Amino acid sequence: MERLQKVIARAGIASRRKAEQLILDGRVQVNGATVKELGTKVSVNDKVTVDGVPLDKERLVYYLFYKPTGVISSVKDDRSRTTVVDFFKHVPERIFPVGRLDYDTSGALLLTNDGELANKLMHPSFEFDKTYIVNVNPIPTSDQLRQLATGVRLEDGMTAKARVQLLISDKEKGTASVQLTIHEGRNRQVRRMFSALHLHVRKLKRERYGFLSLNGLHPGDSRELKPHEVKTLMHETRHS
Predict the structure, then answer these.
(1) Which residues form the RNA-binding S4 domain (predicted)?
(2) pLDDT at position 240 over 60
(3) Which of 28, 41, 43, 45 is the most buried (most CB within 10 A)?
């Protein structure tokens, strides 16, 4: 037996908090009867509907995807551009991306139909490391690297501390590759951090999403998470 709001959240209908409001508003029915009690528990045999629409009892699936550049991190696009779910037409479950990567950014992206886990991973209070490889010009100075590590002032406030490492520098071309690990998830944050320091991002790839790496994957490839990886995600988000 599970709490009703948890079942709704896991189905991807809404976050758990919003699911609670759906219940209080009388928009949820269990076996045909409207339920307004937040403590209500249901089993797999109960028929749950939200606004008259039944929850699909799909198996929960989790995929790590190597998003190529030129792909939208969305379920659909009103301009008919390629989206990340177009690479998962073989998957019967209705999956969606956890967070997003910009159109011109490649790398690690998690897709799932587990709404509850997705909401936890995307919540601002949950500090989940994301590691990027950033190709920039000109070559960052020691002071600029220090600023990236200690915090950069953006229009929406200072960024949190980060881990920074200069990987490669080409003095002839005036370019460099920098590894940057952050745990925030602001819109276009990495690009804005470098731009604020007058560094131009030529190429950006998210190499790791937490403990999940792109090892063995090429752009457009994906793999289903292993059971122990799913358990680790659940464990790391249990208090968020």
Answers:
(1) 2-65
(2) no
(3) 28
